[in-house]
Structure formats: C-alpha cells, structure tokens
Write a structure and sequence with these properties.
The protein is an alpha/beta fold. Helices cover 26% and strands 28% of the residues. It has 6 helices and 13 strands. The strands form 3 sheets. The protein has a 7-stranded mixed sheet, with helices on both faces. It has a 4-stranded mixed sheet with strand order 6-5-7-10, covered by helices on one side. The longest helix has 14 residues. It is globular and about 50 Å long. The chain starts with a strand and ends with a helix.
Length: 209
C-alpha cells in the first residue's frame, strides 16, 4: 500500500486521486508508526520551506523520513516535498532541510546570463530533458512535458542525483532527482497528464521495496 504523509502542508487530494486512478491502494496518515511500516511513502508539499520543515520537526516526522531512507523504503518527495529532501533552502531566510540529498534550494534570479528577464514563478508546462536512461523511474518515458509551479529550485546538487531536468531561462531545473529508492519530482506528477501518471506508476510498480 502507498502511504501519503499528512503533515498539514501537502496537496493530498490530487495525489490520492491520481494513485486511485492508477488502481493502487493508498492511505493518508500523520501517524509516525504507520508511516514507519509503510511499503512505499510519498511526501507531498505546498507552501513555504521554513513552515514545512518546522512542521515535520514538530511532529517528529523528519526523523521518520530519515529512518525510511536508512531502511531503503522507497520515498518520493513531490514539489516542496522534493525540496525538503535537500540540505538547505534560502526561502524566507536560511533553513536546514532533511539533508537526505546534497543541494541548496534557491530562488530563480528572473534574469539569464544575457540579461533577458523571465517570469518568476516558473509556472506551466515544461519539457523534461537529459533523462538518465536506465533508471526505473523513467521506464517507458523518452521526453515528456510536466507541470511546474515554483519560485525556488535546487542548485549545488550532485550530478549523479540529477535524473531529469527542465530548462527555464538558462537555468537547469532539476525535475526528477534522487538515488535508487529515494526520489523527488519538482513538478506535480499528478497534474502532469500522461507523463506524470507514467512517473507515478513507475514509482509504485518499478521501484523495489
């Protein structure tokens, strides 16, 4: 069963409905013990990084996420949930993240190297590129469009953790990140049409527990 973490800052309804459409059972919970026993876990997120990490720490779920990774339980962070997996963020001041992946979350500058301005937030459909072939999360996906809504992105990350990216302005935006079982998606797969649904299915069916 797929367990969706409810810590008060996730887009629970749309993620739940997407999993339901894929024909898989799920549960939504804030109970640490239930999450610890989960087969696979999704950490969604909307809102501000500082508020989200504070809520995870207040409930003790930050430690639960670390335990899941230590036990190699498949874990998927979505949007802000993905950013929380990294070392730190500058959103609203400096905040330490879960530090499960190395990288720093920073704001789009709104201007490329040639001085051309672009809109912030990065909002809308963008193409996934430079896919890391062979990773099971990308099974049956060559290139596809996914739906982004964010003003901050992960920088200063290890290249081996960059599974797919999108280009916005002249910024390489990590779209899919992670390792074998610890994964993140900056976009909203549940709102990203066929490509997003394939990615969710791949997490559920192709990432070994």
């Amino acid at each position: 069963m797929i367990t969706i973490v409810d810590y008060g800052m996730g887009n629970l309804h749309s993620v739940s409905k997407a999993i339901e459409r894929l024909g898989h059972a799920y549960q939504v919970t804030e109970d640490a013990e239930i999450i610890r026993q989960a087969e696979k876990v999704i950490l969604p997120g909307v809102g501000a990084f500082g508020d989200a990490i504070a809520q995870l720490r207040r409930t003790g779920l930050d430690q639960v996420m670390r335990e899941l990774v230590e036990r190699e339980t498949p874990l998927l962070g979505i949007c802000l949930g993905m950013q929380l997996l990294f070392t730190s963020s500058e959103e609203g001041g400096h905040h330490e993240g879960l530090n499960l992946l190395e990288g720093h979350v920073q704001r789009f500058s709104g201007q490329d190297a040639q001085g051309q301005r672009y809109k912030v937030p990065h909002m809308g459909w963008n193409r996934l590129e430079h896919l890391k072939k062979g990773h099971p999360i990308l099974a049956n996906i060559d290139q596809g469009y996914t739906y982004f809504v964010h003003s901050y992105y992960v920088a200063e990350m290890k290249e081996e953790a960059r599974i797919a990216e999108a280009i916005y302005g002249d910024t390489r935006v990590p779209g899919v990140v992670g390792t074998e079982r610890l994964l993140g998606m900056q976009f909203h797969p549940e709102k990203s049409g066929p490509t997003g649904m394939k990615l969710l299915r791949n997490f559920i069916e192709n990432i070994d527990a």
